[in-house]
Amino acid sequence: CGNIGKDLVRLLEPFECKIIVYDIQEYTEFYKKYNIITMNLEELIRESDIVTLHVPLNDTTRNILDRERLALMKKGSFLINTARGGLIDEDALKEMLKNGHLSGAALDVLSIEPPEDMELLNLPNVIVTPHIGGSTEEAILAMGRAAIRGLDCAKRVREVVPFYLR
Question: What is the mean pLDDT of each run of 10 residues along the chain (166 residues)?
Fold first, then answer.
C-alpha cells in the first residue's frame, strides 16, 4: 500500500470494495480513512477475489507469489501484476490458469522480456500489455512537473537555510 497501492485504493473508492492490504509498513491513518483491512500475506491471498501486486523486485519479493502461495488463492480468483517481472512463478501461474484454479491474470510485466513463453501469453484467460504506462504523455508531463517542484523546493531551502547548515 505504498504510493501506487494508495492510488489504486483511491480509484476503487467509488466502487465500495472491501480492500485488504499487506505491507511491510503501516499506514494507520490511510487505512482508517479508506476502511482498509490489513492481513498477513497468506491471509490476504486466501481471502481476496483479486490480488494486485505493487512492490519492487528485490531479494525479499522475488517470486513472492510462488507455487505454494498461488495455490492458496481462491478458486476462480484473478491476479494482476503491473509492478515488476520476477514477482510470480510464471510456470505455476500458467498451470493454475490452465486447470481453472485461477480465472484469469492481467500482466504488463514478465520475468523474461521480451517474453518467451508464448503458451502463457496465448491463454484465453490472460491479458498481457506492454509495461509502458510511464511513457504516456500525461506520465511524462507529471514526472517533469514533479522534477520542477523538486528543484523549486531545493531552491527555497537554499534561500532560507544558511550555507553552513546545509
Answer: 91 94 93 96 97 94 96 98 96 98 96 92 94 73 80 60 49
Q: How many CB atoms lie within 10 A of CB 144?
A: 10
- How far is the C-alpha of 109 from the C-alpha of 128, rounded, in Å? 8
Helix (H, G, I), strand (E, B) or coil at 45: helix
Q: Which amino acid is residue 122, in one-letter code? A: N
DSSP letter string over 90-138? HHHHHHHHHTTSEEEEEES--SSSS---HHHHT-TTEEE--S-GGGSHH
Length of the chain measured in residues = 166
Grid cell of 56 as nine digits? 519492487
Write the CA distances from 87 to 41, 56, 79, integer angstroms: 14, 9, 12
> Distance between the two ends of the chain, CA-based, in angstroms?
33
Residues serving a catalytic function are: 84, 113, 131
